[in-house]
């Protein structure tokens, strides 16, 4: 039975391999990882619930069913990630994959003017490309988080981070992304990703992040 499970997992993994659009290297997608786990669990359940003479058949059936379930969310997020990477390759927006979560990091130098919460005119095309993908992949919740550097007062930075996150939400809504999917938060300077003692660091800290989380478990 162990050999059978390994064969099924290998077949699923090969089928779910993808090519990284930046490096050109082949990699095993999150779909394959989830499907592999599902296949093993399904095989164990299938074998344990089948009669002794049908144990091999039960393991195979369970592995295939488990693999399909385990790969579902991963496959959906893989497709969404690929679409976002394709549209954002030269935009300056970072696309990060963390398990079944996709994070888009939009640095302040391309999103908002200093001290302003109105989206820069030259960023609308990029944000519009993001909206196209989010409207298509509507089985994800969207968390929009605004961040600032430490320059200025705490109250001002808090309001600014909230307003920037809300500006992004409002624009996405105008581009056919359902308002109910989008939740906004402003964090001011509380979560820096770089030092605030240099201009480059402060620029990195002034950012908006979109976290895409699957609605289906």
What features would you describe in this structure?
- It is a single chain.
- A hairpin with a 2-residue loop joins strand 3 and strand 4.
- Helix 2 runs antiparallel to helix 3 and helix 3 runs antiparallel to helix 5.
- Helices cover 52% and strands 18% of the residues.
- The protein is elongated and about 75 Å long.
- With 217 residues, the protein is of the alpha+beta class.
- The mean pLDDT is 82.
- The strands form two sheets. A five-stranded mixed β-sheet has the order 3-4-7-5-6. Strands 1-2 form a two-stranded antiparallel ribbon.
List strands and helices in order, with pairings.
Elements: H1 2-15, E1 17-19, E2 26-28, H2 30-49, H3 55-88, E3 94-98, E4 101-107, H4 108-111, H5 124-136, E5 140-147, H6 154-174, E6 182-186, H7 199-205, E7 207-214
Parallel strand pairs: 5-6
Antiparallel strand pairs: 1-2, 3-4, 4-7, 5-7
